[in-house]
Amino acid sequence: MKYLMAIDAGTGSVRAVIFDTKGNQISVGQREWTHLEEEDVPNSMSFDCETNWALVCECIKEALHVSNLKGEDILALSATSMREGIVLYDKEGRELWGVANVDARAHKEVRYLKENFEGIEDEFYAQSGQTFALGALPRIMWLKNNRPQIYEKVAKVSMIGDWILARLSGVIATDPSNGGTTGIFSLKQRDWVSDMAKKVGIKDDIFPSVLEVGTLMGSVTCKESGLSENTQVVMGGGDVQLGSAGLGVVKEGQVAILGGSFWQQIVNIKSEVTPPKDMSIRVNPHVVKGLSQAEGITFFSGLVMRWFRDAFCDLEKLEAQKSGIDVYTLLENKAKDVPVGSYGIMPIFSDSMKYGKWYHASPSFLNLSIDPLTCNKVSMFKSLQENACIVSRINLEKIKEFTDIKFEEIVFAGGASKGALWCQTLADVTGCKIKIPRVREATALGAAMAAGVGVGIYKDIPSAANELVVWEKTYEANMQNYKTYQEIKEKWQEAYAKQLELVDASVTDSMWKAPGL
């Protein structure tokens, strides 16, 4: 039997995952990695290509070892990665410089572009669906301004997943779903718009070939990887978009929420749909040709829950350990009888998405009482779950407004989907049926699908999704709870607006601000 490999380069770790051709996960090798702030460069998040490549190779070898497979058993591989992260190369294809996804060093460059090129962000957004906040143009401009000796050598740019494939095959290329997050891209044409770079004084000849997801690039040429020279290398894509494929979200109008460290709310739309004029929502090319994805993002939903667990729930950790269950399962069991609305507690963390001018209030809980029977760790825990769902609903409503797409089902995946209470709360808040897939590691599965398409195992990404995605459970909405959450949502929006006023007045500090604000 032959196998497929997916290499998933996330923000906090990199993994090599082996699947059989039926979509069953066989093994995984994983290493954590860190992206360090450069000395004297505030808000930077560098990507160390040499150190991180060694970690990628370790993951590949571990996955092979755990599964008792050899390199020649891997028929094909593909890669996926955190979006927005970029790598720059010289004319020989050697890496010069790289940054991870939320590198925010280019705040001066973002402000410069907005102040000196009136209306240019709106113009570029209308084509690409991206703003400057995490785009590649300001970062490359920062390099030109601050590291000119490196900038002069730049001959190519790619995304981090593309860098992995380039290391393995020697071919530097990108795909629409990941390359599109640079903002130097056309949603309709699914290709670079080099004139964007030329307009702002950046090199316009550094953009590699754009290959659709599932395109065969060549074979492995890197012996140190542990893979065979007969293993085929196939173009992958962005983590959210390939994750969508791994969830079966491959047709127009389908919807998914990915509940990880950040939450993404995505709706499949046609490539020709123009992004909204108010720049409230991000739009990205999908891994399926002819489709884009309208995307809302909720900041730190999973990370906030982890913070709450680690800051306040030491006793629950011990109790869960003694009971042999996950601490989140324990907290959900305790919270299941907390009424809708969590006794009025309002968490203030991520705002709904305002992509054109995006910043958040200071983290806080509002409307606490001093009654320990109602205002306690359990009710605060449930309020955080409710809040993640409410912000997701607001983002989905923004997408509905400009696409006019109506939907009654949402696919829910990621770590949050393991919680039965969180799944039911999402159903009640959105009023939709929530579908949970059996394979939760959807991003890696999507990359394995791409590898399989490249060597003819599957016809295309939608065919692979139809064959491999299996559903584990569904949750139906309680419509009475839905009506109650409508009122809670409106109150929360009013409260959040007031909290933003405190940030504007410099009374409190924003949890996060986009570069240039």
Strand and helix map with partners:
Blueprint: E1 3-9, E2 13-20, E3 25-32, H1 49-67, E4 74-81, E5 86-89, E6 95-99, H2 107-116, H3 120-128, H4 136-146, H5 148-151, E7 156-159, H6 160-169, E8 173-174, H7 176-179, E9 185-186, E10 191-192, H8 194-199, E11 209-210, E12 216-219, E13 232-234, E14 237-238, H9 239-246, E15 255-259, E16 263-270, E17 282-285, E18 291-298, H10 301-312, H11 314-323, H12 327-335, E19 346-348, E20 364-366, H13 377-403, E21 409-413, H14 420-430, E22 433-437, H15 442-454, H16 461-468, E23 471-475, H17 479-504
Parallel strand pairs: 1-4, 4-13, 4-14, 8-11, 15-21, 21-22
Antiparallel strand pairs: 1-2, 2-3, 5-6, 5-7, 9-10, 12-13, 15-16, 16-18, 17-18, 19-20, 22-23
Q: What is the count of DSSP helices, taking H or I runs of 4+ residues?
A: 17
Question: At the fourth CATH level, what is the homologous superfamily of one domain?
Answer: ATPase, nucleotide binding domain
- Class derived from helix and strand content: alpha/beta
Main sheet: strands, sense, barrel = 7 strands, mixed
State the helical fraction: 25-40%
What is the compact description of this entry?
By secondary structure, the chain is an alpha/beta fold. It is built from 17 helices and 23 strands. Among the domains are: 3-235, ATPase, nucleotide binding domain (Nucleotidyltransferase, domain 5); 308-394 and 483-504, no CATH class.
